[in-house]
């Protein structure tokens, strides 16, 4: 198990990887090098950038997933750790979006949130709150699915995939609508409020999973303490040659 600092650095590295991956994808569309399945060129760079904003929120939880670790990559801690991951990732992604208007270039529609990211604080806060909100939602849903699959039946985790898939669709739709519209104080406040609600829910889920983990550990300790004592071979006097 890595240290707390090691996990934070791992989250930071995953967030930077998302940024490094997204920037070239925007440029490929701007340069008309990406195609649909029917070989038609993708031309709407601004819409593509908005979809990538929701993709950033989706990628981070899966990059942090570590099946070989007992906590599956999401650290158990008295101080909720999952919100810290979202804050680190959200900060990196917010800074990275400052250069998105330049990456989109001539395809940029003037006056939209995407176009004003580097010049209008309202646009930047709106975009940051959107990414932060969906990062909380995806991380929350993924942890719930893993928790349900581990402590209940796998069919429960499969059923929970339905709201997860719905969240993917909702993230893409809301990102396109938000980035393609002019900056608005109302939209900004709505996304900030949604981000706060999502953060509270994620914090509660983190505290719950930590409580369940520690209760399982106490139960296992009591079970092991109730087992009859078995002396070792050395205590019985066996001396191998």
Walk me through the topology.
Layout: H1 4-30, H2 45-64, H3 82-96, H4 100-104, H5 121-151, H6 154-159, H7 161-179, H8 185-226
Helix pairs in contact: 1-2, 1-3, 2-5, 2-7, 3-5, 5-7, 5-8
What would you say this structure looks like, in words?
The longest helix is centred in the C-terminal third of the chain and has 42 residues, at about 185-225. The mean pLDDT is about 85. About 70% of the residues lie in helices and about 0% in strands. It is built from eight helices and no strands. It has helices spanning about 5-30, 45-65, 80-95, 100-105, 120-150, 155-160, 160-180, 185-225. Helix 1 runs parallel beside helix 3 (about 80-95).
Summarize this, please?
With 241 residues, the protein is mostly helical. It has eight helices and no strands.
The chain-level mean pLDDT equals 87
Contiguous uncertain segments of 5+ residues: none
Query: So what's the oligomer here?
Result: single chain
Q: Helix fraction?
A: 55-70%
Class by helix and strand content? Answer: mainly alpha
Coarse shape: elongated
Q: Give a short account of the largest sheet.
A: none
Kindly estimate the percentage of residues that lie in beta strands according to DSSP: under 5%
Distance between the termini: 37 Å
Enumerate how many helices there are, as a single number. 8
- What is the string of helix and strand elements? HHHHHHHH
Instruction: Report the strand count.
Output: 0
Determine Rg (CA atoms, Å). Answer: 23 Å
